[in-house]
Design a protein that fits this description.
Strand content: 25-35%
Mean pLDDT: 93
Largest sheet: 8 strands, antiparallel
Structural class: alpha+beta
Helix content: 25-40%
Length: about 475
């Protein structure tokens, strides 16, 4: 049993883990930077411990400081949340070597599935379809050109160690590949400390669909899929569960492939397998795996009724999976809107500030995951995500209508956010029809220059 859990993260996910830990009778301790000393997660935790200055490299990414803090507070387990060190095999290994439980998979699995090129090869071994491309990382331009000859253009050049939509370039032809490959390698080395890249066919009009899984090291189950096609610069903006694009036979095949891959690697903990779905052909292709809890996990929880963070902690305590596949079912539809401190009217420029007035929406089917509170001043050092608005209802149309009502009730004064963007999206006819792909939002923004108004005034005022 875990008695004292150190949560090494910040913002809404730190608070989310605090709540799950306390419900299981664990002491929740939040490791925080100096800039987050007064955060809501620290206030709600049983204890807080400072791990360094505001800069993430000196706090949330500082393994030595985290391990010292864990020892100082007598922690027996560490939950990494998402981002920061959550997919660092070195961190997972260091936590285990220090005699604590890492709430997540073994370091070797993180290495295997966190490396995009290696994960792709593993998927091929497990019989899971992948996007046509290089079987592993390409060593040089000659090999890349040879792969391109067999796969065809356009191609994606992707960083093997990349993630979160970063480290990706498009090559439309051989000349572009000659130019882009060295730049992609340099970018990958700078961003991830690893210059290996691999190639995939670029499917221009595809959907981004992912499958949530849980594994106990022997058996795995899926908790259905989420669709995350509404993206800006390959960053997810709006997610829903289930996908409006899949029929039941395709959904079943997709989810079964995710379980097959998870069991192929004896996966442990919560994980997400990401796919591209081609609307035209009905084909799906595995692209990568995230070996951690995802930002958008609440919509899966809303539809299945399974508390994923709680299950992660149960598994870390040594329990087996508590569900069979037959016990997992869906009910209704859920959407999640990421509310970022960004100003759409200024090119989504970051807009950190102090909360002057805050009114959350309420009512049936509404969930808010956020660390905001009246008077809170956002530190300018981190990700711009300030809240997730999760809405559930009996069907997709009702969920989108309820989402609009919830956004009308939402008031945040003090800085600009993307809430107004979501208010217009949920009423857009194409979004209502579910006619989306990963390029939809970029095209929509280009055609809606004055339609994403968002300010420190309430959303209701912004869209009136």
């Amino acid at each position: 049993m875990i008695r004292r859990l150190l949560i090494v993260n910040r913002g809404e996910i730190a608070l989310r883990v605090v709540r799950a830990a306390r419900e299981l009778g664990m002491q929740a301790i939040v490791a925080h930077s100096e800039a987050d000393a007064d955060s809501l997660a620290v206030q709600q935790a049983d204890e807080g411990v400072c791990i360094g200055p505001a800069q993430a490299t000196k706090s949330y990414l500082n393994i030595d400081a985290i391990l010292k803090a864990a020892k100082d507070v007598n922690a027996d387990a560490v939950h990494p949340g998402y981002g920061f060190l959550s997919e660092s095999p070195g961190f997972a290994r260091a936590v285990k070597d220090a005699g604590m439980v890492f709430v997540g998979p073994e370091a070797a699995i993180i290495e295997r599935m966190g490396d995009k090129a290696m994960a792709r090869q593993t998927a091929i071994e497990a019989g899971v379809p992948v996007v046509p491309g290089s079987p592993s990382a390409v060593s040089d331009l000659d090999e890349a050109l040879a792969v391109a000859d067999s796969v065809g253009y356009p191609l994606l050049i992707k960083a093997a160690a990349g993630g979160g939509g970063r480290g990706i370039r498009v090559a439309a032809n051989a000349e572009a590949l000659r130019e882009e490959l060295p730049m992609a390698q340099t970018e990958a080395r700078t961003a991830f400390g690893d210059d290996r890249v691999y190639l995939e066919r670029f499917i221009e009009r595809s959907r981004h669909i992912e499958v949530q899984i849980l594994g106990d090291g022997e058996r795995a189950i899926h908790l259905f899929e989420r669709e995350c096609s509404l993206q800006r610069r390959r960053q997810k903006v709006f997610e829903e569960c289930p996908s409006p694009a899949l029929d039941e036979p395709t959904r079943d095949a997709l989810c079964r492939s995710a379980v097959a891959l998870a069991e192929h690697v004896d996966y442990f903990g919560a994980g997400t397998l990401e796919y591209l779905f081609d609307d035209t052909t009905g084909e799906f292709f595995f692209i990568e795996m995230n070996t951690r809890i995802q930002v958008e996990h609440p919509i899966t929880e809303a539809v299945t009724g399974v508390d994923l963070v709680r299950e992660m902690l149960w598994l870390a305590c040594g329990e087996r999976l508590r569900f069979t596949q037959q016990e997992i079912s869906r009910r209704g539809w859920a959407v999640e809107m990421r509310i970022n401190a960004e100003d759409p009217e200024r090119g989504f420029f970051p807009s950190p500030g102090q909360v002057q007035r805050l009114v959350w929406p309420t009512g049936p089917g509404i969930r808010i995951d956020s660390c905001l509170f009246d008077g809170h001043r956002m530190p300018p050092f981190y990700d711009s995500l300030v809240a997730k608005l999760i809405v559930w209802d009996e069907c997709r149309d009702s969920a989108l209508t309820r989402a609009g009502r919830a956004l009308d009730e939402f008031t945040l004064e003090g800085f600009a956010t993307t809430a107004g963007l979501h208010r217009r999206l949920v009423d857009d006819p194409e979004v209502r029809r579910g006619a989306m792909d990963t390029g939809f939002l970029e095209r929509w923004l280009e055609g809606e220059p004055a339609s994403t108004e968002s300010s420190s005034a309430s959303v209701k005022e912004a869209v009136s």
